[in-house]
Task: structure prediction
Amino acid sequence: QVQLVESGGGLVQPGASLRLSCAASGFSISGIHMTWVRQPPGKGVEWVSSILGDGSITKYKDSVKGRFTISRDNAKNMVYLQMDSLNPEDTAVYYCHTLSYWGKGTLVTVSS
Result:
């Protein structure tokens, strides 16, 4: 059974950091383009970051450049999103996505 399971979300204050994890099972992520997207409250889904199958190229939404870092460990079948200097506009449910697969998401709330 193919699954993507996100974890690592939570409630943090502005300026804090969080590290999201995405555990894939039922298939190998090796060589597969992986993506993080998010859905802010009351808004549509927006792309956040992507990483090529070998990790050689990463891309980011402009508003998170310099603050977020996507990475992957193909041996562990994991993808990560390190989020630093969080601000309230980063509040959203974050989803791991690849091919036709989606996780159930992890909620990140940034609030003082």
Observations:
- The longest strand covers residues 18-25.
- The mean pLDDT is 96.
- DSSP finds no helices and eleven strands in the chain.
